[in-house]
Amino acid sequence: MTTFEQTELSVCVVCLHLLANGEFNDGTNAAETAATGMERLWGDNARHLTADGEELGYSTWPCDSCGDTDHGDRYRATALIPNRGGEPS
Ligand SMILES: [Zn+2]
Question: Is residue 88 assigned to a domain?
Fold first, then answer.
């Protein structure tokens, strides 16, 4: 049986689009930067992040997904990480 560890996140608009649509294109390298940050913070677990898009409003905290420290609107996302603890390796 697999259990999941669920974590509520607040993510930047770039991550919202990446998680929801798999892409974000504003003519800059924002998507690339966010994807790199996501990979660094979450590694393989990045694929377990899902965005539900609920607006959380303006925040001065870093994005929970990519670590971007720019202030701006944040949106709700969820990390649902399979918990493999306890299984024999
Ligand atoms: Zn982000």
Answer: no
